[in-house]
Automatic annotation (TrEMBL):
InterPro entries: DSBA-like_thioredoxin_dom, Thioredoxin-like_sf. PANTHER family: GLUTATHIONE S-TRANSFERASE KAPPA, THIOREDOXIN SUPERFAMILY PROTEIN. This is DsbA family oxidoreductase. It comes from the Bacteria. CDD domains: DsbA_FrnE. One of its GO terms (molecular function) is oxidoreductase activity. Residues 3-208 form the DSBA-like thioredoxin domain. Pfam families: DSBA (PF01323). SUPFAM superfamilies: Thioredoxin-like.
Length: 215
């Protein structure tokens, strides 16, 4: 079995959904032997790298909501994350561009160390959802990525260039070609798709069904 999943660091449902999928894989003793590939998906590639807008302003305008409606929705998302043991402080997140974070994830993935890649992904989720720091700030990215185990010189090399931008764009083009319009989106064995942050039990059942069909 192999799994690809399209995800964005700025996506709370991606954070929650991927956590549930990984938990399901571990529950079924499949995690160690199942390649799990993070595919880049930017929810809003037009966002700037610096902003004065708050998440509440960005969320309400982007979803056509009043401030009260947006606040209620954000609080509901935070509660959803908490139910999975995740701190999802979306209200204090900084709505900025995630391209450079995706490029560093590609750097980690290119090194062939799955644990390292997972640590980098998790570190960036922490930056965005727990620490309220800008995921586009190079100093913030470097600090988080080096703490996760990436080499500082390699990080600088990527951030000071356009390395891995093509790979990020390719992931996004592949999503378009497959008709994927949102994230997270999981593809199992290039055949079976799961959209969104489904309940944990749904991921377990889907994996069991694929096991039964594919052996």
């Amino acid at each position: 079995m192999e799994i690809k999943y399209w995800s964005d660091i700025a996506c709370p449902f991606c954070y929650i959904g991927s956590t549930r999928m990984k938990k399901a894989l571990k529950e079924l003793s499949l995690y160690d032997d199942t390649p799990l590939e993070f595919k880049s998906f930017q929810l809003d590639p037009t966002l700037p790298t610096t902003t004065d807008k708050t998440m509440l302003e960005n969320f309400s305008s982007g979803h056509g909501m009043t401030t009260e409606q947006a606040t209620a929705q954000i609080e509901q998302i935070s509660k959803m994350g908490a139910s999975d043991g995740l701190k999802v402080d979306l209200l204090n997140a900084v709505p900025t561009n995630t391209l450079d974070a995706h490029r560093l994830i590609k750097l980690a993935d290119s090194l062939g160390d799955r644990d390292l890649t997972e640590k980098v992904i998790d570190a960036f989720y922490q930056v965005y959802f727990s620490k309220g720091e800008s995921i586009a700030d190079h100093d913030v990215l470097k600090k988080a990525a080096t703490a996760a185990g990436l080499d500082a010189e390699k990080i600088d090399e990527v951030l000071n260039s356009k390395q891995f931008e093509k790979e990020v764009r390719t992931d996004q083009m592949e999503a378009q070609q497959l008709g994927i319009q949102g994230a997270p989106f999981f593809v199992i064995d290039n055949k079976y798709g799961i959209s969104g942050a489904q309940p944990y039990e749904t991921f377990v059942q889907a994996l069991q069904q694929v096991q039964a069909k594919e052996g």
